[in-house]
Amino acid sequence: MLQGNQSMVKEFELLGLSQARGAQLFLFFLFLLFYSLILPGNILIILTIRSDRRLGSPMYFFLANLAFLDICYCSVTPPKMLADFFSSRKTISYKGCMAQIFFLHLLGGSEVFLLIGMAIDRYVAICHPLRYANLITRAVCCALVGLSWCLGFMHSIIQIILIVPLPFCGPNKLDNFFCDITQIVKLACTDTYDLEFIMFFNSGLATLMCFILLLISYGALLVKVRTGSSQGKSKASSTCVTHIIIIFIMFGPAIYIYCRPFQDFPLDKVVAVFHTVVFPLMNPMIYTLRNKEIKQAMRRLLGKQTIWGAK
Length: 311
Hints:
The chain contains eleven helices and three strands, in the order E-H-H-H-E-H-H-H-E-H-H-H-H-H. Helix 1 crosses helix 11 (292-310), helix 4 runs parallel beside helix 8 (193-227) and helix 9 (233-258) packs antiparallel against helix 10 (268-289). The protein has a single domain (55-301), classed as Rhopdopsin 7-helix transmembrane proteins (Up-down Bundle), CATH 1.20.1070. It is globular, with a radius of gyration of 21 Å. Helix content is 72%, strand content 3%. By secondary structure, the protein is an all-alpha fold.
């Protein structure tokens, strides 16, 4: 990620969420409290799935990878955001800005494709239950996870290839708490209409198409479950509804950010906070709260730790 030859800007100034000192302190403690509660919960999900043999099915394998992706995603921008609450001048270097963009789109893109992999898993489990064990093996699961990372990398590297050649020769203020393409492109000292159009297809339209595809898929699965036999009907229906909730939570902010012109809107910062900080950590938690098997496995794991601690 080398700086463009024509670029003169060495760093960008982040205006943050608020300029008021009192509001900054309130937001700092609010986000810190949120992290101290939710982040360990996601780690516990991964440890629970890995330690309990009863959770060896592909569905839980994908859930553990989803939790890992969300933890990584929430490690890109929030740590610097929390540190910047105590900085009088919030800046980020050009290379640091490019790194943020790269990892945000790498992890975000990988999560989108992982959700598609989870949809494929549910389709086979509901529509071809007798062949499920033979079709969705551990090797297939690992291949789907690996493919999601590869596709996420391809999506992200396209963003970087498009942004790096842009010349930045003057304005360097970003009215946000992190770097993203919608903010950076507007600062370039050149006409970016064609570039914005390409990025709309690469991020916005692709996100919207995945969202619609997933909704149609789970809608069809719900119809299949409702009209099928009663065996496992309730559990399969609950799983599909949970996935639909996660899809709305993840894709909603992304569609708002990328499926429109690169212009400022009043809710941009609020949506950005939910998109990069709150919702990613909440996804696995929502799944866990709606799943009795994981909650029981967590109790067993915590019970074992309590016993070992007592000894």
